[in-house]
Design a protein that fits this description.
- The structure holds two protein chains of two kinds.
- By secondary structure, chain A is an all-alpha fold.
- Chain A is built from three helices and no strands.
- A two-stranded antiparallel ribbon of chain B has the order 1-2. A two-stranded antiparallel sheet of chain B has the order 3-4.
- In chain B, β1 and β2 form a beta hairpin.
- The longest helix of chain B is centred in the middle third of the chain and has 26 residues.
- At the A-B interface, α2 and α3 of A face α1, α2, α3, α4 and α6 of B.
């Protein structure tokens, strides 16, 4: 699945805004539903890294004052 | 009135799907959540976005998502959400910890979704949906966590929840403390999901 997803997205260039995030949201719901055990240390590290990275994401930056 | 009923039905479908998929409903030996959760969520999303395939409106749209391209993606999601459904907990897994981690996963992507949608047309949303834009700005406001770590509130909320979860796993926090932070994150996540439904709704032409 993780190999197919980038290929699928690559062939959907006309989606302008939001669809890839909508897809990511659907997949996160699926991942949450499928989770059967506690995160491994690696999962934990990845999640924390993603949170830290969001601090530099343009979408997470407030409007300039 | 019809538009309002339609919007309510869409919100119920999109909201019901993740709830069923996440918490599960089992009647007898049948895993009702596996099928209903996936179908409800996907039905709601397809219905929600279906109007983008209709005749273009003169009123500017919030976002542009050609439904013909989205449907194949949702078909993939149907396979995974509808056919596979919820997984049972492994023996020894703490349901509180797993529930927190599930919430963290969904909340992170919900925040990503609304913030990126708003970021794509900030001036549009600031003018036409100021409530949504203000909510996104609230999520973006810098907060200090772990004493020196400055992050957007959306991330800071999740870091705080994760910190409490880790403290709970280490025996340094109670389940009540975990639930207190969990409810805060779930509240913000619910608002994000609600705004997602509103801002992707086609503006009324009459």
């Amino acid at each position: 699945m993780t190999m197919l997803l980038p290929i699928v997205l690559q062939y959907l260039p006309t989606i302008e805004t939001g669809a890839e995030h909508l897809w990511a949201w659907v997949m996160s719901v699926r991942a949450a539903a499928q989770q059967s055990g506690e995160w491994t240390d690696e999962n934990e590290t990845q999640f924390r890294a993603a949170l830290q990275a969001s601090g530099k994401d343009a979408a997470y930056q407030p409007d300039p004052k | 009135m019809k538009d309002q009923l339609q919007l309510i039905a869409q919100v119920v479908l999109i909201g019901l799907g993740p709830v069923l998929a996440k918490h599960g409903v089992t009647i007898g030996n049948a895993d009702v959540d596996q099928i209903l959760g996936g179908l409800s969520l996907l039905g709601g999303i397809i219905w929600k976005f279906w109007h983008w395939n209709a005749t273009p409106s003169a009123v500017p749209s919030a976002i542009t998502v050609p439904i013909k391209q989205v449907v194949p993606l949702l078909a993939f999601a149907a396979v995974f959400l509808g056919a596979i459904g919820c997984a049972p907990l492994q023996p020894g897994a703490d349901p509180i910890v797993v529930n927190v981690e599930r919430t963290e996963t969904v909340a992170k992507s919900s925040f990503d979704l609304v913030l990126n949608v708003d970021n794509s047309k900030r001036s549009f949303f600031a003018t036409n949906a100021p409530g949504f834009h203000n909510f996104c700005e609230w999520l973006r406001a810098r907060q200090t966590v772990e004493e020196t770590n400055s992050l957007p509130r959306a991330s800071a909320l999740l870091v705080s929840l994760d910190d409490v979860k880790l403290a709970y796993k280490a025996g340094r926090a109670t389940s009540n403390e975990v639930y207190a932070v969990l409810y805060t994150v779930q509240s913000a996540e619910s608002q994000a999901s609600a705004w997602m439904t509103v801002v992707t709704n086609q503006p009324s032409t009459h």
